[in-house]
Amino acid sequence: MHPFLKKATMSTLESSLMKSKFRGCLLGSLIGDCLGAPFEGDVVTAGDKIVIQRYFDKLQDSTFKAPFKQYTDDTAMCKSVAKFLIDKPEPDYKFLAKLFVTEYFNEPKRGYGENVIEVFRKLKNTKFEDVYKPAREQFFGSGSYGNGGAMRIAPVSLYFYNQYHSMVEVAKNVTKITHSNILGINGALLQCLAVHQALLSDPENSIDPKKFCTELSTKLKDIEEVDEDNLDNINNIYHDKLKTVQKLLQKEPSDDLDEEILENLGNGIRAHESVPTAIYCFLRAQNEIPGIETENSFRRTIQYAITLGGDTDTIACMAGAIAGAYLGEDAINSVLAKHCEFNKEILEMAENLFTARESIPIK
Ligand code: F2R
Ligand code: MG
Ligand code: MG
């Protein structure tokens, strides 16, 4: 067991820190989604970065009143994963598939992509007979490598924080209901490991980015799905990207470097073009970034992720989950959080997830 975790399970003080990390993680994921959503698909210019700075300043001003920023599919699916873990002591994937489908048909206008909607329709029409079959049929049988598996995985990292093998098995199965391409699955695994590693890191000690990335790569190597043909060097994609993250972190932040990040890591809807980018945002935001004026590293993570443009809701959501898991709820500005739809409910879910977790003996 990780020494910090061992300590954490031993006294009330550390148990309260773990609870704060559960709450911070899900709240961080929600904030990234809600605040990133208005910019999804945008190309962000230097001028837009100033607009985004003002947007955050305004949202943090307690006198500023505005309608809720609405959450999207990222949070809708994350809610289902959390409920699946809270409600059933043993994983029931048919129950989870039904939760995804019910959530979608109740609120279809949450920004879901066309293809995943086809999976939901097939699941419903086949009465959930084989919960993995519709996903396997996507993209002429190659399965999806979208980031929809990774964007919702954080509750699995939390719930199984001291049951590593269960975490890995459940993360794979939760993903395969909609994403069966190995890049989609491995992307979700990488995000799951990143949240887990951040959760087990002491927020009073600074993160060593090199160690953070090499540990992720080593752990991923052990658990990832492998493509036997390895066409286009598919098996190396995430490992190469984690090396690139480390290299880019050694450079001074600038607008030119942001261009390099987009070229080398990406900011798209594909898992391999967004999960490593979210990890990069979290690590980069451990230190000051020019043009992002805040002392708070949680806000810096989310704001920076949004300034990269592209799949802003999802990259900010994944980076926010990692940052929240590391820092805990206290590091998140409550005025900022209150602008997000579902902010109270997500904290209640985190609390229920924590309680459900604590009632299960450590194996
Ligand atoms: N879908 C969006 N945003 C754009 C649409 C917004 C909406 N129309 C609106 O305005 O309301 N955002 C959300 O989708 C992303 C997660 O996507 P997910 O769940 O992974 O979907 P999908 O369809 O499985 O994959 C996404 C795209 O990736 C490409 N792709 C995936 N696998 C492929 C393969 N094997 N071959 C070729 N292409 C593949 C496709 O272009 C898919 O459409 C998040 O950003 C979330 O916020
Ligand atoms: Mg979305
Ligand atoms: Mg998105």
UniProtKB/TrEMBL annotation:
One of its GO terms (molecular function) is poly(ADP-ribose) glycohydrolase activity. The keyword Nucleus applies. Binds 2 magnesium ions per subunit. Its EC number is 3.2.1.143. One of its GO terms (biological process) is DNA repair. Its cofactor is Mg(2+). Mg(2+) binds at residues 72-74, 311, 313-314. Keywords: Chromosome, Cytoplasm, DNA damage, DNA repair, Hydrolase, Magnesium, Metal-binding, Mitochondrion, Nucleus. It is found in: Chromosome; Cytoplasm; Mitochondrion matrix; Nucleus. Its main location: nucleus. It catalyses: alpha-NAD(+) + H2O = ADP-D-ribose + nicotinamide + H(+). Belongs to the ADP-ribosylglycohydrolase family. Monomer. This is ADP-ribosylhydrolase ARH3. It comes from Exocentrus adspersus.
